[in-house]
Amino acid sequence: MKIAILGTGNLGYSIAMGILSQDNFNLKNLYLTKRNVDSLKKWDKLPNVKISTDNKKAVRFSDVIILAVQPKQLQGVLEEIKPQLNLKRHTVISVVTGRKINEIESIIGNEISIIRSMPNTAISVGQSMTCLSANEKGKENIEIAKSIFNSLGKTMCIEERLMQAATVICASGIAFWMRLIRASTQGAVQLGFDAEEAQELSMQTALGAASLLLKSGNHPEEEIDKVTTPNGCTIEGLNEMEHQGLSSSLIKGVKASFEKINQI
Ligand SMILES: NC(=O)C1=CN([C@@H]2O[C@H](COP(=O)(O)OP(=O)(O)OC[C@H]3O[C@@H](n4cnc5c(N)ncnc54)[C@H](O)[C@@H]3O)[C@@H](O)[C@H]2O)C=CC1
Ligand SMILES: O=C(O)[C@@H]1CCC=N1
Predict the structure, then answer these.
(1) Could you identify the atom of ligand 2 that is nearest to the CA of residue 174?
(2) Which GO CC annotations does the UniProt entry carry (predicted)?
């Protein structure tokens, strides 16, 4: 696969990290662009990686174009690369928050494959949850996007109207879960563990909880029932957390994030 990432900032960098660290990724060339390429220099020596500020050149040398710039930068980049786009050859994948497929089509047309995608930063370690939607032409090439993002985690094809919600749950969700892990770590320190041990305990326990649900297919409450000994310490802690608004604050946070994303 010949892939270009236009705008290799936080998210673009994470995607590049993921692609370059997966041994089984079918990569021929990876073209990375950004305005100041200094932070990408360490990859310049890799034989299949090219670093540049030149978006047009990156498009000419690639088949899959991943757009990873800020929302306000997208229009300029699309206008710049439009003359280089080949309707048969190129698949354009946008990971830009809040920019709809029809906005992209209004600049580069609807005869080219356009896939709107929302990965999260766990893509750098091959564990992203990535949602995908495509325009009519893009539906023919959705397998290309799936093969890229399935190599870097899991994918789900969704209706485009749900893309903002998916962004909150999966992309912002990484930050939400980090805070929960940090809070649990702080609790463990208060109970006597040193900071490093506390974080390891919290991280592995979070991974174990998610793995239990993934492997068993069970509802979280079914697993909670197995842990909550009657009159025991788990239900005592859980009920106190709920009295303090744990579930309610998470749901309100998700809603606030969703309201904000609709203003971006
Ligand atoms: N799914 C997720 O987990 C996340 C998604 N995002 C979304 O991803 C997009 C990028 O966000 P970040 O990576 O945080 O932004 P960023 O500002 O770190 O990266 C954007 C990059 O684009 C480059 N750039 C700007 N104009 C350019 C141009 N004309 N040609 C080539 N490169 C250009 C900049 O130099 C910068 O390196 C945004 O739409 C953001 O909302 C951001 C963070 C996390
Ligand atoms: O915070 C944001 O607006 C972006 C979109 C999802 C993750 N980061």
Answers:
(1) 7
(2) cytoplasm
